[in-house]
Design a protein that fits this description.
6 helices; two-stranded antiparallel ribbon; globular; 62% helix; mainly alpha; 162 residues
């Protein structure tokens, strides 16, 4: 997001993030890159339940991510997205990414991969409030209402803070 954020139809120029928030946002890519490079060297556990169950979870994550991205790009840029997967979670892309990572870790039977994914989850969870603050800044009460009615993560109680 950087020090100053703006979008096509949003307010420009005066949304600020802290240095800590910028470091967290930038660090989020590190576990993804490390895990993808690491996965190149991991042998798939052919013919095992680990491979098939991991691939199923990974494909579900891919479909989840694709659905969320399609919903995002086809929605009006000046409105809060409250349809599709965004009805169930404020972070469907994050959930899809996490499912893909977990699936790959299981498919490769790698605890290290799953541990790297756990770090990714921690960083994504730390980054989500910054994105939500930006959405509150950009969309105001419409986003506040959405935030109060939709959980950040599927299955986790809805936030009642504004």
């Amino acid at each position: 997001m950087g020090a100053t954020a703006s979008r096509e139809s949003g307010k420009a120029g005066d949304f600020k993030t802290t240095k800590r928030e910028n470091r967290i946002a930038n660090a989020t890519f590190l576990p993804m890159i490390i895990s993808w490079i690491y996965a190149i060297f991991l042998p798939l556990q052919l013919g095992t339940i680990w491979l098939y169950s991991g691939l199923i979870i990974c494909v579900i994550g891919m479909l989840f991510t694709i659905g969320a991205v399609l919903n995002f790009v086809t929605s009006p840029k000046d409105e809060v997205i409250t349809t599709g997967l965004y009805r169930f979670t404020r972070n469907p892309v994050y959930i899809g990414l996490i499912l893909m990572q977990i699936g790959l870790g299981i498919a490769c039977s790698s605890w290290l991969y799953v541990i790297i994914t756990a770090f990714l989850v921690i960083l994504l969870n730390a980054n989500a409030p910054v994105e939500e603050r930006y959405c509150l800044y950009r969309f105001g009460d419409d986003y506040r209402k959405y935030k109060n009615n939709t959980p950040r993560w599927i299955g986790i109680a809805k936030s009642k803070k504004s």
